[in-house]
Amino acid sequence: MCLAVPGKVIEIDRSKSPVMGKVDFGGVKKTICLEWVPEVEIGAYVIVHVGFAISTLDEQEAAETLKLIGEIKWPSESDEDSKHH
Amino acid sequence: MRFLDEYRDAKLAAHYAGKIRSIATKPWTIMEICGGQTHSIVKYGIESLLPEGLTLVHGPGCPVCVTPLEMIDRAIAIAERPEVIFTSFGDMLRVPGSKKDLLTVKANGGSVQIVYSPLDAVRLAREFPEKEVVFFAVGFETTAPANAMAIVEARRLRLNNFSVLCSHVIVPPAVEAILSSPEHSIRGLLAAGHVCTVMGYHEYIPIASRYRIPIVVTGFEPVDILQGIFMTVKQLEEERAEVENQYSRAVRQEGNIPAQELMREVFEITDRTWRGIGEIPRSGLRLRESFSDLDAERRFPVADIHSQEPAECVAGMVLRGIKRPYECPAFAVRCTPEHPLGAPMVSSEGSCAAYFQYGRVRHEEHA
Amino acid sequence: MKNMPDHRKNAVLDFSCPTPLSSYERILLAHGSGGTMTHRLIRDIFLKAFRNDHLALQHDGAVVGALAGRLAFSTDSYVVHPIIFPGGTIGDLAVNGTVNDLAMCGARPLYLSASFIIEEGLEVSELCAVVDSMRTAAAAAGVTIVTGDTKVVDRGKGDKIFITTSGIGVIPEGITIDPRSARVGDKILVSGTIADHGIAVMSVREGLEFETAIRSDTVPLNGLVEEILKASSDVHVMRDPTRGGLATTLNEIAEQSNVGILIRQNAIPLDPAVSSACEILGFDPLYVANEGKLVAFVAPHDADHVLDAMKRHPFGKNASIIGEVTAESDQGVVMESSVGGRRIVGMLSGEQLPRIC
After folding, report:
1. What Å distances lie between residue B12 and A39, B227, B246, C94, CA to CA?
2. Which residues of B touch A55 (CB under 8 A)?
3. β pairing state of B132-139 and B162-169
4. Alpha-carbon gap, residue B83 to B111, rounded angstroms
5. Are strands C88-89 and C108-119 parallel, antiparallel or unpaired?
6. Is C279 in contact with A25 (Cβ distance < 8 A)?
7. What phi and psi values does residue B117 have, to the nearest 5 degrees?
């Protein structure tokens, strides 16, 4: 379930209820409800599902995830032996 | 696209596939819960990158597929009424009811409109005050807050021509139902990344410990899925059974609190029938009594519509991961995307449709 | 339903509605009756736009004179909604579509017919926009619209306007392009970015609107085809993928030639904004409509040469070699995804629907 796509917030209208804004998805812009990401600023990235931002994207976590991929150690020989009972 | 392309990188994907191969010492069976993950797995051919012994089974994470037959029939009855504009997400339109689908209703002159967002349905109600606008509120916890917002908006705007046909389902009870059934062979779970974006993942901690099963909250891009599988296999090899978060760029343990609060304001938990699986207690959401005036099931005379599932569709076993689509005797023979017997063949998220479209390379290699 | 947003400002339009028909804002049933109003409609809108000797004769049929060589003949009907969209109108599709079908046979397109079924109530200004775009499209393609027909149907019986065009072209000596002729080893080329048209139209459909600079790719491909055929005498198949997208066309050719096809996702040209739009709606660009692209199956020794020729042409600058023909006909079309896994690219049974899952 749950096709949700990342996009960049380019406009925020906090005078509206619910809070609305415009999100740029790589060249495609749509009006999106930003009510549940109250901390969001222009330029931040959000995840959007059916016209609603459900989360901000944490750039640091994203970087960590990609970095972690390169850092995971191969299991050592002794680790392997201890698994086979 | 930023935050997408990086997670489709071929080198990273190959890297992870290699890691998985290097640490897996036993044949493990892992289930991914979410239809979006199934879609990605099949679309990118991820199974062909995994080692022989690793089996992925596809869970019931397709809210379109699991919408009860009865609810589809009620939707059709409402959509056929001349005063109604029936609004829905696109993928619901081809789900077969007992006799027809919503697309057929449209072809026969019914007013059926696809919307991208539930707020579009509210807008239609404002534009067409002389019509009854009904919105088909389906989905998991990811979609429930959005549908709740539409309901609250309609109330705020004092629209008396808007109502909602509600068929929400929630994930944790379904996961428990699958894991407590004696027939399954699932050893690890990839939890649905976007459901957890809304709900957090604290609900899975007791499940992981009760069933001794590692649960990894996973995203949707190929690298996410491979990383999620890697983290699951690593736990299995290390005999751990914890909840971990692969999709940490979007998911926090507590989830999205304001979205959850709105859900709680509008919906309450109820028993729900999952198409092809049966009734799972406390696995659905319905409108609270205070919003009953916006409930399409009360506004329209559909309470007498009751439906029987066809015998041949083994959707339930497929949705529970007990059978693969190609193990169904009707698959690709009597049941095809053109003539689907059950919902997993209709929705492009459904296991059967995904296999029919994309998956025949792999399983034919193993045949 | 209600009034559509005005997409005309997005379309490339350069017209001035010529009509003293301006006493009518909308087309009426009487305009199709065959009487004076019909004559005025034809004279003031169609004849004025498609100015040529054949039409001026207003004969029942056009006599075009002797043509030397094998003839190609094609027909197509156009029913798009909305009729004006970013990048063009239904008129552009009607002319370019038939021109392209003829070009895919290896023919030089020459003459077109155009039949119009107009819904009562269509705004005259919209009709003018459509007809004028046909005028410019025909001029760009180098074809003449020599005969036509107009009918008007009751309101509610026709989605604003339906257009059917048929066309004749001449195939030069020695050229045989046939969908059964794909051979194992042939390279498969595509002339540019896919899914542009379908997304451009979707961006202005009710319920799904989004802001974007994406425009339909509708163009006449006969010029590009001439360059391709000059570059190689070993072009085996050509086709323009329209409805159903690239995937459908490749499946059709694979079946007709009884071969397999292997394509690589990374080699398929895709505009980033179109890709984003597909992400949001949940569409697979392989199945989204095109209107100004072609695929060519070329013998491997000529593939690079043909690619260069395509890239030199304005309508082929993003051309790419996307795969090759294999002997695995039982698998149909297989794609190597951007992460290396393989999957089958089958035929869709119906239209793609925007999804939430």
Report:
1. 32, 9, 15, 46
2. 197-198, 250-252, 256
3. parallel
4. 9
5. unpaired
6. yes
7. -130, 145
Tell me how close the Cα of C336 comes to any Cα of chain B, in angstroms: 8
Token pair in block for residue B138: 């389906």
For the record, the structure tokens of C266 come out as 């990374």
Strands (E) across chain C are located at 70-78, 84-85, 88-89, 108-119, 144-153, 161-171, 187-190, 211-212, 235-239, 260-264, 295-298, 320-326, 333-336, 342-344
H/E/C letters for each residue in chain A? Answer: CCCCEEEEEEEEECCCCCCEEEEEECCEEEEEECCCCCCCCCCCEEEEECCEEEEECCHHHHHHHHHHHHHCCCCCHHHHHHHCC
Contact between C339 and B356 using a beta-carbon 8 Å cutoff? no
Please tell me which chains touch C, using 3 or more CB pairs under 8 Å as the contact test. Answer: A, B
Backbone angles phi, psi at B23, to 5 degrees: -105, -15
Both tokens of B278, joined, read: 């049966």
**Cα–Cα distance, B140 to B134 (Å, whole number):** 19
| Contact residues on chain A for C210, CB-CB shorter than 8 A | 28-30
> Does residue C7 surpass a pLDDT of 50?
no
Q: What is the CATH number of domain C187-344?
A: 3.90.650.10
- Please give the Cα distance from A31 to B324 (Å, whole number): 40
Q: B61: which chain C residues are within 8 Å (Cβ-Cβ)?
A: 357
Q: What is the dihedral of CA B122, B123, B124, B126, to 10 degrees?
A: 90
- What residues in A contact C277, CB-CB < 8 Å? 25, 28
Query: What is the pLDDT, as a whole number, of residue C209?
Result: 77
Asked if B291 and B151 touch (Cβ cutoff 8 Å), the reply is yes
Tell me, which fold does domain C7-171 have in CATH? 60s Ribosomal Protein L30; Chain: A; (3.30.1330)
User: Sheet holding C108-119: strands in order across?
Assistant: C70-78, C161-171, C108-119, C144-153
- Do the Cβ atoms of C199 and C214 come closer than 8 Å? yes
Q: Per-residue pLDDT tens for C340-351?
A: 888 889 887 777
Residue C212 identity (one-letter amino acid): T
Contact yes or no for C218/C83 (Cβ under 8 A): no
Residue from the list A2, A3, A28 with its beta carbon closest to the beta carbon of C276: A28
- Which amino acid type is present at position B215? I
Q: Widest CA span of chain C, in angstroms?
A: 66
The whole-number pLDDT of residue B315 equals 73
The model carries a pTM of 0.85
Does the N-terminal peptide bond of residue C82 adopt cis geometry, omega within 30 degrees of 0? yes
Interface check B221 vs C, CB under 8 A: no
Please state, as a whole number, how many other Cβ atoms lie within 10 Å of the Cβ of residue C66: 4
Q: Which domains does chain B have, with CATH numbers?
A: 1-311 (3.40.50.11740), 315-366 (no CATH)
Delimit the CATH 3.30.1330.10 region(s) of chain C: 7-171
Say if B34 is an interface residue toward chain A (CB within 8 Å): yes
CATH number for the domain formed by residue range(s) A5-73: 2.30.30.140
Residue of B nearest to C353 (CA): B90
The confidence score (pLDDT) of residue C135 equals 95
Single out the residue of B115, B103, B121 nearest to residue B159, CA to CA: B121
DSSP at C321: E
Could you tell me if C21 and C41 are in contact, meaning their C-beta atoms sit under 8 angstroms apart?
Answer: yes
Domain boundaries, chain A: 5-73
Confidence (pLDDT) at B129: 96
Chains in contact with chain A (at least 3 beta-carbon pairs closer than 8 A): B, C
Nearest to B212 by CA among B178, B179, B247, B245: B179
Whether the predicted pLDDT of C322 surpasses 50: yes
Rounded-to-integer distance, Cα C355 and Cα C357, Å: 6
